[in-house]
């Protein structure tokens, strides 16, 4: 499996540390997203699983990068947010891609 095949082309993503990204994601993202295969529960069922995000086509990553920089609370997570964002994306890229669910009742597909 080519895990990086769906990777964004952004330079700030390439240098990320996936293990640090996992720690950041587990600390800040688990209220809404399933960030690892071991996580069993998600509070916000409309938020995509990080492995599902990794299944997206490369051109679909830019809205995610923009969303990470603007609409998540609290963002930036720290003064090192540029590095942390790269680490979280590196963690997402390390996951086995999973298909996105089909849109249905209760699934938010548009912001």
Q: Provide the low-confidence segments as ranges.
A: 1-13, 105-111
Subunit organisation of the chains = single chain
Tell me the helix content: 25-40%
Amino- and carboxy-terminal Cα gap? 31 Å
Proportion of strand residues: under 5%
Order of helices and strands: HHHHH
Structural class: mainly alpha
Total helical elements: 5
- Largest sheet data: none
- Please report the total strand number as a whole number: 0
Gist?
This protein has about 110 residues and is an all-alpha fold.
How would you portray this structure in words?
The chain has 111 residues and is mainly α. The protein is 39% helix and 0% strand. It is built from five helices and no strands. Helix 2 crosses helix 5. The longest helix has 14 residues. The radius of gyration is 13 Å and the shape is globular. The chain starts with 10 loop residues before the first helix and ends in a 17-residue tail after the last helix. The N terminus and C terminus are likely disordered.
Short key terms for the protein model shown above:
disordered C terminus; disordered N terminus; 5 helices; 111 residues; 39% helix
Give me the secondary-structure topology.
Blueprint: H1 11-14, H2 18-28, H3 50-53, H4 61-70, H5 81-94
